[in-house]
Amino acid sequence: MSVPILEVCGLRAAYGRIEVLRGVDLAIPKGAVVALLGPNGAGKSTLLKVISGQMAPTEGDIHLAGVHVHEPEPEKLARLGLCTIPEGRSVFPNLTVEENLTLVSYAGVPADAVLETAFAYFPKLEQRRKQLAGTMSGGEQQMLALSRALASDPALLLLDELSMGLAPLIVEELYDTVAQIAETGVSILCIEQFARTALRVSDYAAVMTGGRIVATGEPDEINQTMSEVILGGAA
Amino acid sequence: MSSLLSFTILGVFSGAAYAIAASGLVLTYTTTRVFNIAHGAFGMLLSFVFWDFSQRQGMPVWLSLFLVLFVVAPLFGFVVQRVMTRGLGEAPVSVSLVVTVGLFVGLIGLAQQIWPPDARTLPFFLPDSGMQIGEVYVTAHQMITIALSVVVAAGLYLLLNRTRIGTAMRASVDNPDLLKLYGGKPSQVAALSWAIGSSLAALAGILLTPVIGLDYYELTLLVISAYAAAMLGRLKSLPLTFVGAMGLGLLQSYAVAYLPSEGAFAGVRAVVPALFLFAVVIVMPQAQLRIGQVKGLVSAPVPSLQRSVGWGVGLVVAMAVVTLALSDSNLLLAGTAATYAMVMLSLVLLTGYGGHVSLAQFTFAGVGALAYAKLDSPNLLGLFVAAAIAALVGALVALPVLRLTGLYLALSTLAFGVLMDKLVFQASFAFGFNGSLPAEPMSVLGIAITEPRVYVLLMVMFFAAMAVALLALRRGRLGRVLIAMRDSPAACGTLGLDMRWFRVALFGMSAGMAGLAGALFAGLRGTIAATDFQLLSSLPLLLLAVVCGVTSATGAAFGGVFLMLLPVLQSNHPELAGLAFAVIGFGAVALGRDPNGLANLGFKLGRTLGVRFGPQVRGFLPALPGGGARREAGSMAEPTTPERTPYDDLAGPRSGDQQEEVAVGGTARG
What we know:
By secondary structure, chain A is an alpha/beta fold. Helix content of chain A is 37%, strand content 26%. Chain A has helices at residues 44-51, 74-79, 97-103, 111-121, 123-127, 138-151, 168-183, 195-201, 219-230; strands spanning 6-15, 18-28, 33-37, 59-64, 67-68, 82-85, 156-160, 187-191, 204-209, 212-217. In chain A, the strands form two sheets. A six-stranded mixed sheet of chain A has the order 6-7-8-3-9-10, with helices on both faces. In chain A, strands 2-1-4-5 form a four-stranded antiparallel sheet, with helices on one face. The radius of gyration of chain A is 17 Å and the shape is globular. Chain A starts with 5 loop residues before the first strand and ends in a 5-residue tail after the last helix. Chain B folds into two domains: 2-282, Orthogonal Bundle (ABC transporter involved in vitamin B12 uptake, BtuC), CATH 1.10.3470; 305-595, ABC transporter involved in vitamin B12 uptake, BtuC, CATH 1.10.3470. Helix content of chain B is 73%, strand content 3%. Chain B contains 26 helices and six strands. Chain B has helices spanning 2-32, 39-56, 61-85, 93-114, 140-162, 164-174, 176-182, 186-212, 216-232, 238-258, 272-283, 305-324, 328-353, 361-375, 380-398, 406-424, 452-475, 477-487, 489-494, 499-525, 535-548, 553-572, 577-591, 597-620, 627-637, 644-669; strands spanning 130-133, 136-139, 436-438, 443-444, 447-448, 527-529. In chain B, β1 and β2 (136-139) form a beta hairpin. In chain B, α15 crosses α20 (499-525). Classes of the chains: A alpha/beta, B mainly alpha. The A-B interface holds A 52, 54, 73-75, 78-79, 83-86, 90-95, 99, 102-107, 111, 148 and B 164, 167-168, 170-171, 173-175, 177-185.
């Protein structure tokens, strides 16, 4: 097996005195889609923040493509090919669709190419290219956010609750796009409450609770054994 | 006809300079959401630098212009952003306003310190060339200015809308963290926008200096014209800002040309920008309700009624002892300190509890003083009527801006201050031009208080009574509403509270408190003049209030003493005059982020000392009959009552410091 694209060892992180991550170990093989499941407050989003460089860990190591990440800065990681789509609507509401996409070029792809890719996947966005992103519907905003992942050709994509506040049909659509992205060889770590939808597109799944990874495995295994116990029958 | 044309050209010229200044202001506001009140002060300081380069050091004009615009100004803006205003965009408006007001005052002080007052002139660019258009001669300087404003407007528009860094500038306002995840660098973007903004302020200042002179205040207050213009574009739209600047320039020029230079309208010419600002603010659409801040302000503790009354009485008694030793002139200073402390108390209500900023609190004190002198009934009734008039004026100022909050309300108080300064206080029915009014000392229940010592004590009593009343208000239902409104207007709206009238009443009440202070001050001094209540002295007042602690009565007492000492220090050491201002200004920049100020540090120290030494000290004291002993026994016997114990530790040193401070002030003066 080749070097995993992301490897996290014994990661700990805290908000003040409240420790949220208590020794997380996780590896994402190159080209794999990993779903990270778990109840609210398990530390999933915090883990994502630490990996993307937005929060400093108190202990533990992160390796990206075998390279140890030392004192990360989110903007540097982004320029090196780590694409993070945080929780909520991750677009700039007071910029137009086109301007939002222009900013994607910081990741190293020319702006023209970004627009081309985005509009090829989501023709709807082309109709709205001059509209302010904040005035679009939630689903359209997430399409815009996802087109960043599509167009910037990242090595690793971190997705935090893509489905938040969206209708199930749209969620299915968005995850079809995630599957398409995965086909191009991008490794993906996605956090999701719609466990079944996420498991449909993923190669592996991990369950997190109380700041630790408590189970990893194939989606089927996890689906059968863990969903009743951890997710209380959700999804 | 030719006069119309020539005044139009003059108007377009000043409009062009305003446009340059205003677009810099809009740029920094839209990209970092910090409204830079010190924008004009930037221009002032950098114009002085330009004068220094081109006149004093004799560098060629083009070289000094290049150095100022492309080296000094951007560097200055960069440093200010990095050191002082970083991260202020997410802070409450009151905090960011105080920090930039601190810059404003500090820069004036700095300029006075480096370039002491002297006659300085800056020549026009290309003074000998020009062009004849019809019957009107247009100077090269005017043409350069107009051309530059167009270049600046077009350049900024292209920068913000057509380049990636410009787009990133606007994106960083929406969500700086997300911009980082995109790979952009919000801190660089912010520094760049401040560098450009500072450069534009410098350009506007340099272009206008030959016309209005190299003056600390005129150039700094130029910023009001820039706000007014920027406000037309709601601090966002650059094209509308340009239109606003041109309109304002023309309006001002026509006012000079066609309004009579005698009579009631004479003063109007000087306040056109302020009137324009008022008009724009009034027609602004309703502000959206703000969702509560995630980072709530931690306020200073509120003492119980017993404690506040106890320490109020303690203060009065201590002052009664101290004033025995003071000479008449020092008594006057003590009275001044009490006045300032009362005005600061009105800021505790408005800014500390309410979260609104008033940049013209002294103006309300002036209204109170004027009303007291004009009423000519020097008794308690006259005093309260004067305060009521000031309250009414305060409510009137808040009324037009009923629908607006934070920044706009603060700016309209600034415009109000300018209006009163230049139009009303100077008018013949008020103080008159450079005039003063006599005022009788107060009499209470038919006994005239002519003895200054008793009068000062009366003022201290008023301060103590106001502080006790204010703290009682804060503990009650109204106080809870105030804090709730400050923390989350949106949540209050959903609870069904109508905040608009409440805000007007709050403003009125605060103005009334300031008015009461002004009226008492008039009685103390015997004569009062417009110069006692200048707008510009309201700014150090606000700064000292914040530095000393705008959330507690103790902070107000400290602040009053310091503000009184300021001119004393200046007259004793004239060479340090500018420095004192600079220290206060930059002190506010450093401390403005914590509105609890020095007073709270005192409370903390007191708490530590109380925990450390309290038991030993109590051990030496004999058990007193009454409340003190009971409370002591209570806290000893029930160590589990958490609310009680910190209060006991807190309130002791709190007023102890207060007394000590007054005593120190007294000996320093004596």
